[in-house]
Amino acid sequence: MDDLKPWLKATQKQVDSALGRFLPRESAAPKTIHKAMRYSIFAGGKRLRPILTLAAAEACGGELENALAPACATEIMHTYSLVHDDLPCMDDDDLRRGRPTSHKVFGEGMAVLTGDALLTQVFIVIAQTPETKRYTVKDYLEEIAVTGGSKKLIGGQVLDLEGEGKELSKRELVKIHENKTAALLTCSVRLGAMTANATPAKLDALTTFGYNLGLAFQVIDDILDVTQTTEMLGKTAGKDEAVDKSTYPAILGLEASRKEAARLTKKALKSLEVFGKKGQRLEQIARYLLEREY
Amino acid sequence: MDDLKPWLKATQKQVDSALGRFLPRESAAPKTIHKAMRYSIFAGGKRLRPILTLAAAEACGGELENALAPACATEIMHTYSLVHDDLPCMDDDDLRRGRPTSHKVFGEGMAVLTGDALLTQVFIVIAQTPETKRYTVKDYLEEIAVTGGSKKLIGGQVLDLEGEGKELSKRELVKIHENKTAALLTCSVRLGAMTANATPAKLDALTTFGYNLGLAFQVIDDILDVTQTTEMLGKTAGKDEAVDKSTYPAILGLEASRKEAARLTKKALKSLEVFGKKGQRLEQIARYLLEREY
């Protein structure tokens, strides 16, 4: 298998190009909303979720082309959640991916509508996913709608909002990140696998993979918030502590948090055994995420 | 055909009961968001959109039972848009359906999340619509997602937001209401018809019906905002003028607005001819809406 870095770069480019096709043109009326949707989507994200979707499709022997729609859908869902989370009435963030946040550029009302429009676009895009013998658009729809819903993605944000200023237990913190981060990463790999007509056993393995990778990813994110600068992060550093948010380093300490991330990554990697050599790309991605500067 | 009023009452009851089933229980975690979702849904709306869905299914010879999921989906979509429109950064409304608005009760951040959760729930619910020979979940999904998207429902709200404080032409005003109101009413009848396996010709007739009824409905809404009290409306009266919003009465005058509503209703009724006697319920509803106190 080729090196990860060039593959990542090439795949990000493919994802960006597909995102361009799956979003309304900036010239479509009303222009403001389409400009704002594209502003947040093309702000230089890592495209982790679509990359996982494509790598999972590959691991299950599918065509990358067939996984582009759900890959973009997961990225659009992630972006909508950031636009709304950054609002003054939520996390009140001025900076995201190194640029002013949506409400700073377009105003609060427009940022609410931009998030809404992106969320709705998720479903316009998911409807375009090719069906397989085992999976129909109904299956893709249920997968992503339940993941984005009040019991998972939004539920996690609710717990996060309610937990601010309180001292959370590790268990409570895990609950937030299961919903906020791990659920969408799990959905990303599952959708990719579904477009490859994966067996239920492989879907199960990817559920375990996504869950553990998602938690590991969040632990590392929390560590980076403590150890990196705003410039390195592209978002306000030290923010968690400033707003008195419970984080892994705050609860466990830095060293134990690093160990926790390694433990979770190991569990994620173990779940890939069923894919044999075909799982190498997912394995490379998991290792790469763990070895981010922190 | 029996009288409209008892049918409306019985149907509203059925819709409310279905909405109760299609929303997460209040006891499901996190409780706050599910309480807030139900607070806005069960605030005593007229259930116009689901009623249109069910009446359209009936007009096409379908089973009411099969149309309950999309009926609820349209009502949930309508409610999400109200929750977000009422936010301080949008229309800043304190009162809706006679009760304090969501952000007044649950706070702004939670109201944003509640709208998001309702919007996502639309798609969880639409996935549960029974398929027919002609129409699959993919068709239902595309219908409602495109209607809710940046070029229709949200696009209309963008134009509305951008038009505040400006003097709009009649044409610009119609554009807003085509998107904000008529699109979702059209989608409501079309989805009902689809669950009844309606022919494309019947879908076309209902598209004309929904469009004209939607515009008529909005003209009447604008008139009521001028002529009725806050108590009668259940939302702040005189609000349009107070925020310098362009309305039909402001542009055309009251008398011409009334004539416009009658003209549009007539066009809507004409489109029902293809349904013969089966279209009577839709006709009754259209007449009833026109004859609201105004």
TrEMBL record, chains A, B:
Gene3D superfamilies per the UniProt record, alphabetical: Farnesyl Diphosphate Synthase
Keyword Nucleotidyltransferase recorded: no
Chain coiled-coil ranges: none
Gene Ontology, cellular component aspect: cytoplasm
Cofactor names: Mg(2+)
Record InterPro entries: Isoprenoid_synthase_dom_sf, Polyprenyl_synt, Polyprenyl_synt_CS, Prenyl_diphosphate_synthase
PROSITE patterns found in the cross-reference section: POLYPRENYL_SYNTHASE_1, POLYPRENYL_SYNTHASE_2
Molecular function GO terms recorded: metal ion binding; prenyltransferase activity
GO biological process, one term: terpenoid biosynthetic process
The UniProt record lists the keyword Mitochondrion: no
Alphabetical UniProt keywords: Isoprene biosynthesis, Magnesium, Metal-binding, Transferase
One Pfam assignment: polyprenyl_synt
UniProt-listed PANTHER family: FARNESYL DIPHOSPHATE SYNTHASE
Entry similarity comment: Belongs to the FPP/GGPP synthase family.
Protein name according to UniProt: Polyprenyl synthetase family protein
Native organism: Oceaniferula flava
